[in-house]
Amino acid sequence: MNAVRRWLAHPLIVIAMAVIYIVSQSMIAHTLQQGGAEALLFRFQFCYQADAFTVLLHSISDAQLNALQQHFAYDHMHPLWYGLLALSLTSWLLDLNALSARWNLLLWPAVLMSVLDVVENSIHEPWFNLLSTPSDPWVMIAGFSATLKWTLAALYLSGALALTIRYVSLRKTRQPHA
């Protein structure tokens, strides 16, 4: 992880990843919004039983189903973009705070969030494309993956905010008083 941290801990990489992430997220949001499926996606993500997933799937409009199907055109790459953003921002914040390599453990949530999103997408996509039927173990795995992904995202944001606050406060205490 040291090599990853050294390579990604640069503000220009953070900015580039942020721009790519914002564009990707905007495209996904726009696609879902066009079909009125933005809130619907979360209902599917937090579904844990095949019966509930199937009932929900059969209750949506054709436009919503189409939007859910089409969002994968962007969502296949999206975990990579936000994973790299999270890795680069955390690497940069660790360096700004002069934290040693033992803090590199804070980089792993970015990787895990992305992997969990890929797992969830891989399970959901065939169902949204009506290529297979949801089953309890797979719905539970997808739901657990989504829940853990969003939990890690919240923890990641809290950690990034804490590192930012720490850096700003340390910087203020180091500056000479006039």
Characterize the structure shown.
This protein is mainly α. 79% of the residues lie in helices and 0% in strands. α7 runs parallel beside α9. The mean pLDDT is 95.
Q: Key features?
A:
178 residues, mainly alpha
Topology:
Layout (H helix, E strand, L loop, with lengths): L1 H7 L2 H24 L3 H8 L4 H10 L2 H9 L1 H4 L2 H19 L11 H21 L7 H39 L4
Helix pairs in contact: 1-7, 2-5, 2-7, 7-8, 7-9, 8-9
C-alpha termini separation:
41 Å
Count of DSSP-assigned helices: 9
* Biggest beta-sheet profile: none
Gyration radius from CA atoms, angstroms: 19 Å
The percent range for helix content is over 70%
Give a count of the beta strands, DSSP E runs of length 2 or more.
0
State the gist of this model:
The chain has 178 residues and is mostly helical. It contains nine helices and no strands.
